[in-house]
Write a structure and sequence with these properties.
single chain; about 350 residues; alpha/beta; TIM Barrel; 12-stranded mixed beta sheet; binds S-adenosylmethionine; binds iron/sulfur cluster
């Protein structure tokens, strides 16, 4: 039986970060020169992740997404996928990756039982990719996408849209995804920890995105769906479906059933939460499943987080956390919390 939080939201969705390290430095996520990394000895072992996922399943979670940092940097990741994929109560096991290491990993992930895959890709232009991600890796990502298309038909491509950076690529990205049998989802630029250069003027709203897609492709029809998934989906006249995640201008906190587990076992109730709850200590102290479930239930039932809505209500807003402050707590960063 799923516990309900203070706004009657169940706990259904868990994002599990498997590492805080990354092989890119996307300007909207990790723009700084230096980072404070989590101590390696603090990272949860696969058995510990497995035990915690079982407890979350007991509490009603049925969707898990592996993320990071870059999850493919975690050694032997398919072994973790294999442990999780065959749990009968886990309806959906997905992963989000930047795709750099995907070409060699896609088939292994599929064989290990991963259900669904999302690849992040913000531009199809090589120079722009290098400026945005600070590594010249577009070719490897494209090879990764081809490998993904072969084994994960209908996979997703997530694109963060930033004004003056890649907002002229909505139309080519729709065509690119369609050609690979993928579904692109455009994400509004968020002022999360790590986005130290964020400004309101760089946010391209859902309305603007729809207008520029419709100007090229013709009428766009919203799909009539009820789900707690953050993306609103739309259909073009030729049947192509794409999504928009309006996390900044139209937050979906009211239905948010998502929690996050960092690579070192901190349990976060919201992407914007200032503090998490340590699950590594009780796991390493040998607490049994019932004790862990009781602890997690107490934390979830006290949850009242509505981070993105509160940010929106501020009206005039700047970056959430300045770069100088981020160094005090690596958990405030999106790449550590698990985007
Ligand atoms: N490294 C993997 C990747 O990039 O797919 C997984 C982790 S990354 C933190 C997860 C997602 O968060 C990516 O799709 C990324 O584009 C998104 N993200 C990071 N910073 C963001 C921001 N400021 N606004 C919106 N989305 C952001
Ligand atoms: Fe980019 Fe993902 Fe790495 Fe962040 S964690 S810098 S979004 S690849
Ligand atoms: Fe959920 Fe927090 Fe995101 Fe709102 S801001 S949708 S409460 S994670």
């Amino acid at each position: 039986m799923s516990p309900l939080d203070q706004h009657a939201r169940p706990l259904r969705n868990l994002r599990v970060s498997v590492t805080d390290r990354c092989n890119l430095r996307c300007q909207y996520c990790m723009p700084e020169q230096d980072y404070v990394w989590l101590p390696r000895e603090d990272l949860l072992h696969f058995e510990e992740v497995d035990r915690l996922v079982d407890v979350f399943l007991d509490l009603g979670v049925d969707k898990v997404r592996l993320t990071g940092g870059e999850p493919l940097l975690r050694k032997d990741l398919p072994a973790l996928v294999e442990r999780l994929a065959h749990k009968p109560r886990l309806r959906d096991l997905a992963m989000t990756t930047n795709g750099v290491l995907l070409a060699a990993a896609a088939a292994d992930l599929h064989r290990a039982g991963l259900h669904r895959l999302t690849v992040s890709l913000d531009t199809l232009q090589r120079d722009r990719f290098r400026r945005l991600a600070r590594f010249d890796e577009l070719d490897r990502v494209l090879a990764g996408l081809d490998a993904a298309a072969a084994v994960f038909p209908g996979f997703k491509i997530d694109t963060v849209v930033i004004r003056g950076v890649n907002d002229d690529e909505l139309v080519p990205m729709v065509a690119f995804a369609r050609a690979r049998g993928a579904e692109v989802r455009f994400i509004e630029y968020m002022d999360v920890g790590g986005a130290t250069h964020w400004s309101p003027g760089q946010v391209v709203s859902r309305q603007e995105m729809l207008a520029s897609i419709a100007a090229h492709y013709g009428p766009v029809t919203p799909l009539d769906e009820t789900s707690s998934a953050p993306a609103d989906r739309y259909r073009l006249e030729d049947g192509t479906v794409f999504g928009i995640i309006a996390s900044t201008t139209a937050p979906f906190c009211a239905d948010c059933d998502r929690a996050r587990l960092t690579a070192d076992g901190m349990f976060y109730l919201c992407l914007y939460a200032a503090a998490g709850h340590d699950l590594r200590a009780p796991v390493r102290a040998g607490d049994d499943a019932a004790a862990l479930a009781g602890y997690i239930t107490r934390i979830w039932t006290a949850r009242s987080d509505r981070g993105a809505e509160q940010r929106l209500a501020l009206g005039d807003r700047t970056t959430l956390i300045p770069a100088s402050a981020l160094r005090r707590n690596p958990h405030w960063e999106m790449h550590t919390k698990g985007g």
